[in-house]
Amino acid sequence: MTLQQLNEAGYSQTEKELKKFYGMMSKEYKTALDNIRAELQGIYNKITGDRSPAQVAALLKDNPAWLFTEAMKFDRLTGLQRSIQTEYMAASIKAANMTVEASKLAITNSFYKQRYALTFASPVKLSFAVLNPKVVEISVLGSPKVWKGIAKAAKEAAEKKYGDLTKYQAKHGTLTDVILSNRQKDLQKIQSVITQNLIQGKGYGSAAKEVKAILNTTASNAARIVRTESARNMNAGAYASHRTAQAQGLDVKRQILSVLDDRTRQQSQEVDTRFEDDDGFFHYPGGLLVDYPGNSGVAAYDINDRETVIEVVDGQSSDQRRGRNPETGKNEVMDFKDYESWAKSNGMRQNASGRWVYKG
Length: 360
Hints:
Layout: H1 3-48, H2 53-62, H3 66-72, H4 76-121, H5 133-140, H6 144-148, H7 152-162, H8 175-199, H9 204-247, E1 252-258, H10 266-271, E2 282-284, E3 288-290, H11 299-302, E4 307-313, E5 322-324, E6 331-333, H12 339-345, E7 348-350, E8 356-358
Antiparallel strand pairs: 1-4, 2-3, 5-6, 7-8
Helix pairs in contact: 1-4, 1-9, 3-8, 4-5, 4-8, 4-9, 5-9, 8-9
């Protein structure tokens, strides 16, 4: 493999490790939907009782708000909305935790895999580097609490290895803000459509269909957030790996590679194969300076971004395939199959989600 192929293999492996989160999140929202529909069916059954569909239709003809009036009795509607909130919140919190873990996996696994590739291809000896947990927290969460927890001396020490820590902060806002905003909006939509269906005298089927549509959209949005945040954090991990290599004396430049197909955006086509400038920025359309793909701060560029970054070591041709195996110290054809043994020999282990963590 060339260094470019090693870089791409690292990204590809990390993307595969992230895919399991999509199915897990979808399952949580499916469970919430089933439970909410069961609660909804329960209140309709309590209201209609033993009445036939014709009898219910007659009552609604005389009073379209009859369902709503009956639902308000004995705090039935209040209880239903409370149950809906409980079910939705349970799913949303689990999905949020998965999003955070997926983002942590993205930045850490990308960091170590790109680091492995550089260690193999570097003409200078690169010592093993452990990704600072604060860099992970800034990139994934970036909350005021995270920043307050970093002492001045610790920040200065970290920036000698990783560069300006603010570059790891998501420019579009913190992940917590995005999740909380979407959670509140979706919960209000669900509760509102149920109330409106009752007021308008619509049956269980209509309300259940609308709730399903909302939760399907919620699940799709959650998956989009994971894809977007994972892509940004993978590139943040590669950026951190790049900075640590520079700090250890390696002359290396970054280059953007975009996925090119019929879904590729105009900006991705324009920046494909573009190198960073002498100040470490990529130049995007309109002169926008970007530290790494996925963190431009422009939603149209960052959402579902399909750009990655590879390393180009000074003095190496693009088709060079030999490097120094960091395990054996011998020059040989580069191969990514040795990554796991390299990681474990340096005190790394995978946790339950597949994220590589340093155990020492």
